Amino acid sequence: MAGNTGTDVAIAGAGIIGLSLGIELLERGLSVTVMDRGRAMGAASSAAGGMLAVHDPQNPPELMPLAVRSGELYPAFLERIERLSAVPVPVRTRWAMQHVARPRPDARLAGAAEIAAFAPGLQAGETIYEWLEEGSVDPKDLQSALPKAFTAAGGLLLEQTAVERVEPGEAVRVLTSAGHVSAGEFVDCCGSWAGQATLGLERLPVFPVKGQMANLRCASERLRCVVRAPGIYMIPRGDGRVTVGSTIEHSGFDESVEERVILRIAAAAQSLVPEMEIPAEMERWAGLRPGTPDQLPVLGAGEGKHCWHAAGHYRDGILLAPVTARVMAQAITGERPDVALDAYSPSRFAAVRG
To answer: pLDDT digit string (tens) for 105-150?
Structure first.
């Protein structure tokens, strides 16, 4: 980009949240420019596990309305991406087994026959697992498809273009490393970097939570569902790869990968599935989840005129992308959102900032 660009909506952050919102706005007839300081889908969006954990018992109860609605939207969301990009994004698994210490009264527990059918390699022992009907996608598939879908829908994608400052107003002026963009609306979708004071917007308590992960290998018929146990989850991709993770580390913006940590995760996976293999060239990585103090996303209007936030999705960015795109597009265009945004409003942090 050279010089100046005009657009209806400018979005900072070309991860799954920013690109999904961009497509939703484009299909409503608006022009959209998405900018990213690096490559599209190059940060947390591609480093995630990809579990569509609608009913994850570890999530705050206030997240449930968003999670349920997003689960309902997911089939159409994937169909839209595939249609626009011509790149398949399959649902890799359909079920998850969640370790539980005390089963809920209405829980459907996994019996020996079902474990033998879906995870014959699993050393379940006396462990109690609850069945959850939830899928998973491979973020690598989304990384290949989503940027293509956005540009095919008519969006302008500016990679290697850092947003340096935002000046709110009737026409929002977005200063970047390659010029400036004039926009009717601006949306901060910068993940762990959202709400930085350097943008010129109000500072939000969004912070990075590091997670280290790796890909091991196992015969696909030995593990056909996601397994979550204390300190470990295993996500089979259906092609022999099994993504295992993950740590929860408050270490700033450090994205380094530590051998000892990865080997500890791999050992935990092997203790559950002894057939799990550590490849000679093991793929390993770290990602930065965008956390918030209450573990709820930040969705809604900011303090600056025509400025919005859509960030802080913590461990559920992949799951919540469809609903975030929908409710934010509805809010920006003056419609009533499918899910009330009061619990996720940026203004809930105003007292803390004061």
So the answer is: 888 998 999 999 999 999 988 889 999 999 999 999 999 999 999 9
Indicate if 73 and 13 belong to the same structural domain: yes
Q: Which domain holds residue 181?
A: 4-83+139-206+293-353
| Full 3-state SS string of the chain | CCCEEEEEEEEECCCHHHHHHHHHHHCCCCCEEEECCCCCCCCHHHHCCCECCCCCCCCCHHHHHHHHHHHHHHHHHHHHHHHHHCCCCCEEECCEEEECCCCCCCCCECCHHHHHHHCCCCCCCCCCEEEECCCEECHHHHHHHHHHHHHHCCCEEECCCCEEEEECCCCEEEEECCEEEEEEEEEECCHHHCCCHHHCCCCCCCEEEEEEEEEEECCHHHCCCEEEECCEEEEECCCCEEEEECCCECCCCCCCCCHHHHHHHHHHHHHHCCCCECCCCCEEEEEEEEECCCCCCEEEECCCCCEEEEECCCCCHHHHHHHHHHHHHHHHCCCCCCCCCHHHCHHHHHHHHC
Whether residue 271 is contained in a domain is answered as yes
Q: Looking at the domain assignment, is residue 91 inside a domain?
A: no
Task: State whether 169 and 212 are in the same domain.
Answer: no
| One domain for residues 158 and 56 | yes
Q: Look up the pTM and report it.
A: 0.95
